[in-house]
Backbone:
């Protein structure tokens, strides 16, 4: 037992010495040219073959992609007609509106009714107020474009995820095939999804929608599988004993019983769709995401913050409604009686839609929120930012420079000065120690993959940014989690803040950071910390709270002080949970890191971003897979450590 | 006591592990199964359940009783053996035939009730009929009938979570009876209930059985429950049967120390029947006639209070008499 700490200490000392003094021959510091495999070229060539020549009989691959695009386009167009465009005649500017889209009055009333149905009037009023906010602050049209995308992406993602999840539950081989694919899909950064979709489907809302669906589906597959497995075995037995056919068993027993769990997945699909629809503005999704992107590019401070707040409003509406619906699932059903009697809210909403539609023809203000009534906060935000920048420039700058010089740059220099065989070797040793031969083999394979991509330097920069951000996120998050767990009121406040942070699409985090610190590694680090903080807080609080009360009582009875109980009882028991939080923090940090390419980092994310702007599939996928490799390795290592810690606590195997 | 056999199984095995079929050929011992990395959940079980009887399978947790009952209903596919229902080998039945048998001939009650949380009491009870494709009006009429049988009238519109544990199991019982099965499996139906409710449900169960006379396979880990309810008890240990006997035989002649450990503390009066303590001939001046199957405990007060002997009859024929003294001997544990 004493041996291992010594070995790790020796390795660390050796690494430091190497980084500081050694002059390594070429090929030792970064993998030599000879090791590089032209993977990007292969992928690009494969993609070219797919788009140009691949065919199954008379159906070319292009026909296939066009077919898929058409299938998605039809419902998307319908949603746009409903929410954005209405039914029009003619094209472009000369188009005349025959039937207008849903008025702001109708959509707002529908939001209130849905909130009331899902939970109570308070939720309804919150949802309505936030919709009204979108109208008043002139974000309505963009928000409706985004909402139309989500309205189509969510059902597609849910249906696809449900289907795959059911198949994986029924047939073990499907699960065996799907499981590694899902692992990969959840670790490949969002941008990397966009590149192949862009190449196959072109620039436009349909591509964006497709990328959104693909991105949002994996959690639904997993939730479905878990939810079906969680159906008590007695209930499955009962379904068989009642003489259900396979279909009856699934439709009448399994799915209804699993519904509350499945709704958690639906909520996840909603939030991931929102996140991706914003990001997918890079490949042609319009709406709020496009507004943010344009503002970021123009450095339009006020516009960016306004669009960001609108996204926040939409995210809160969707999240709260989704959660309330999930909590309600499987609850008591509507009263008996005729259809209108059972669905009073639906009747009301339909009536409002009709009335506002007709009235809107006479009074335009009912149809579209009048421009004169809108409020713009752009100048306010711009002034505020300028004021901060003028008044606190020195302090902000001092902070930035200090952190860069004393924390970030030394870490960066250290990592970049390490010889690559040492890095791979340490990862392998850690894998062997924590998870045995299999994990060691995985570490070797992923390390060699990174070496063969020719992106070693970018990978090390990714590691450095991720490492610093995660360290800071944990240093802030764990104490916050402890605070949240120690008092009910603090828990409530922190919980609300953290929940709201979690609903925000990753894009939004870039806005304030860029405003305050301009572009560069420091801005990226702050954005990543903000984004990745949530799991550190949540898992710590959860781990501390779920320590068995008996153990705490045993501590109290032994005369331990509060501090002693925290340090000697709660924290040690919470270690496995905190490790899982660390794991999540790393995964979130990596996914955010790629997005911070927009504020000018030089890591793997930048590679993906460049590939995206050049529509270079090979380059984008290789860089994306490199991020996935780092993520998977971190996930497995920490997962193994958490399991180890847990086993030790439970005194088991 | 000779009933026609309704359900029988012969040499049924259920072995879990990497290659269970390889082990089967040479009747492996428990140690051989374990040594090869397998688990012998059910080992070479043969038994016969007579029509209209309550056949209790008793064993501690992990003894394989739950797996055995799932083999009998083929919820679990046995590794080997035969399961004969009215002479038909269920293991050879096609999936369609199995669905048919389960829809019309089998009912099952579960330890944790296995009610569908999204359906009302009425819909839960009607569910097996809905699966058969019966029209709503017909299935709900039948469901109301069985709900009445278990005494839950007025709760048809409740959801399972609004009911107590005992009430939930009444729903489970009603549901399993909705299809009028001939074969009724009960898998530890009362184990999850509080002792007082358990007692009440056992009486309720006996009342229903008196009325319906189903063929019952009843699983329990509670020896007292087994004694109270069973016509026959099969005691299981490590996946194999240790002894199959009537409660009376079990208590009077336990097969080994394992069975004796259960029977040692059972009051004799609970299991000994009048038939066993009756003496030949009928003296003059008997106080009345009692059935030979009646257990001493249930008639003791009547006999002792009367202070005179009672005639004992079996299947309509008088076989002898019991004296108050004989009853008292059993009660105080003398002579047996």
Residues:
């Amino acid at each position: 037992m004493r041996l291992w700490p010594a070995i790790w200490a020796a390795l660390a000392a050796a690494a430091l010495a190497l980084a500081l003094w050694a002059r390594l021959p070429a090929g030792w510091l970064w993998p030599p040219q000879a090791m590089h495999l032209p993977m990007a070229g292969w992928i690009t060539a494969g993609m070219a073959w797919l788009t140009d020549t691949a065919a199954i009989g008379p159906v070319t691959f292009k026909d296939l992609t066009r077919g898929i695009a058409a299938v998605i386009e039809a419902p998307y167009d319908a949603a746009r007609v409903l929410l954005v465009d209405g039914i029009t005649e003619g094209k472009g500017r000369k188009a005349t509106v025959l039937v207008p889209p849903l008025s702001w009055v109708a959509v707002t009333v529908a939001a209130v009714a849905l909130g009331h149905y899902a939970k109570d009037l308070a939720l309804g009023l919150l949802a309505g107020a936030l919709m009204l906010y979108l109208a008043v602050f002139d974000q309505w049209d963009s928000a409706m474009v985004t909402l139309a995308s989500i309205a189509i992406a969510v059902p597609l993602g849910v249906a696809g995820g449900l289907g795959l999840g059911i198949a994986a539950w029924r047939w073990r081989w499907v699960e065996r095939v799907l499981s590694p694919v899902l692992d990969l899909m959840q670790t490949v950064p969002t941008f990397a999804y966009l590149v192949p979709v862009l190449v196959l489907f072109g620039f436009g809302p349909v591509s964006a929608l497709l990328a959104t669906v693909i991105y949002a589906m994996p959690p639904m597959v997993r939730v479905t599988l878990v939810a079906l497995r969680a159906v008590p075995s007695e209930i499955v037995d009962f379904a068989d004993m009642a003489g259900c056919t396979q279909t009856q068993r699934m439709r009448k027993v399994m799915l209804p019983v699993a519904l509350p769990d499945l709704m958690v997945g639906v909520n996840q699909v909603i939030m991931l769709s929102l996140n991706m629809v914003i990001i997918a503005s890079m490949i042609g999704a319009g709406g709020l995401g496009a507004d943010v992107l344009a503002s970021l590019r123009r450095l339009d401070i006020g516009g960016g913050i306004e669009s960001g707040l609108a996204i926040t409003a939409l995210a809160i509406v969707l999240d709260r409604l989704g959660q309330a619906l999930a909590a309600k699932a499987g609850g008591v059903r509507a009263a008996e009686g005729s259809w209108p009697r059972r669905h009073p809210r639906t009747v009301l909403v339909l009536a409002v839609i009709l009335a506002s539609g007709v009235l809107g023809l006479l009074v335009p203000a009912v149809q579209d929120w009048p421009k004169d009534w809108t409020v713009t906060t752009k100048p306010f935000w711009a002034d505020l930012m300028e004021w901060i920048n003028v008044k606190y420039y020195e302090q902000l700058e001092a902070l930035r420079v200090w952190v860069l010089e004393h924390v970030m740059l030394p870490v960066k220099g250290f990592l970049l000065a390490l010889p690559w065989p040492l890095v791979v070797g340490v990862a392998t040793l850690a894998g062997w120690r924590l998870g045995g031969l299999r994990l060691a083999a995985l570490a070797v394979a992923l390390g060699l993959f990174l070496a063969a991509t020719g992106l070693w330097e970018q990978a090390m920069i990714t590691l450095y940014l991720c490492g610093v951000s995660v360290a800071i996120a944990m240093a802030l998050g764990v104490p916050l989690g402890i605070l949240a767990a120690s008092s009910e009121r603090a828990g409530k406040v922190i919980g609300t803040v953290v929940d709201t942070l979690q609903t925000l699409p990753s894009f939004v985090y870039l806005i304030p950071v860029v405003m305050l610190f301009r572009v560069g590694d420091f801005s990226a680090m702050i954005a990543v910390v903000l984004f990745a903080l949530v799991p550190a807080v949540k898992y710590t609080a959860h781990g501390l709270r779920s320590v068995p009360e008996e153990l705490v009582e045993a501590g109290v009875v032994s005369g331990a002080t509060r501090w002693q109980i925290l340090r000697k009882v709660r924290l040690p028991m919470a270690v496995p949970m905190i490790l899982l939080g660390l794991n999540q923090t790393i995964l979130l940090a990596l996914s955010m890191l790629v997005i911070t390419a927009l504020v000018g980092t030089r890591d793997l994310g930048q590679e993906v971003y460049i590939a995206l702007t050049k529509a270079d599939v090979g380059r984008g996928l290789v860089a994306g897979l490199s991020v996935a490799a780092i993520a998977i390795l971190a996930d497995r290592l920490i997962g193994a450590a958490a399991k180890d810690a847990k086993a030790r606590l439970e005194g088991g195997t | 006591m000779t009933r026609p056999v309704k359900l029988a199984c012969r040499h049924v095995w259920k072995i879990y592990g990497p290659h269970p079929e390889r082990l089967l050929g040479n009747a492996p011992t428990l140690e051989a199964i374990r040594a090869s990395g397998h688990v012998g959940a059910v080992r070479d079980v043969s038994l016969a359940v007579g029509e209209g009887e309550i056949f209790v399978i008793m064993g501690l947790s992990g003894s394989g009783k739950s797996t055995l009952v799932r083999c009998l209903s083929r919820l679990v596919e046995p590794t080997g053996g035969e399961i004969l229902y009215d002479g038909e080998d269920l293991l050879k039945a096609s999936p369609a035939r199995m669905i048919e048998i389960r829809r019309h001939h089998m009912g099952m009650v579960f330890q944790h009730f296995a009610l569908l949380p999204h359906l009302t009491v009425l819909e839960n009870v009607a569910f097996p009929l809905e699966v058969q494709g019966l029209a709503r009006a017909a299935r709900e009429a039948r469901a109301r009938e069985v709900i009445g049988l278990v005494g839950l009238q007025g709760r048809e519109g409740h959801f399972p979570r609004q009911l107590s544990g005992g009430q939930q199991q009444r729903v489970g019982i009603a549901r399993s009876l909705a299809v009028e099965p001939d074969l009724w499996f009960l898998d530890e139906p009362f184990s999850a209930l509080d002792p007082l409710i358990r007692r009440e449900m056992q009486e309720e169960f006996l009342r229903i059985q008196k009325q319906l006379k189903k063929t019952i396979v009843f699983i329990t880990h509670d020896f007292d429950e087994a004694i109270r309810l069973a016509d026959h008890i099969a005691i299981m240990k490590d996946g194999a049967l240790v002894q199959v006997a009537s409660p009376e035989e079990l208590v009077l002649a336990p097969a080994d120390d394992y069975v004796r450990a259960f029977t040692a503390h059972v009051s004799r009066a609970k299991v000994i029947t009048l038939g066993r303590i009756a003496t030949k001939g009928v003296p003059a001046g008997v106080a009345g006639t009692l059935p030979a199957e009646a257990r001493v405990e249930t008639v003791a007060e009547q006999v002792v209070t009367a202070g005179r002997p009672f005639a004992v009859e079996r299947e309509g024929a008088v076989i002898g008499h019991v004296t108050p003294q004989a009853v008292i001997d059993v009660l105080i544990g003398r002579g047996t």
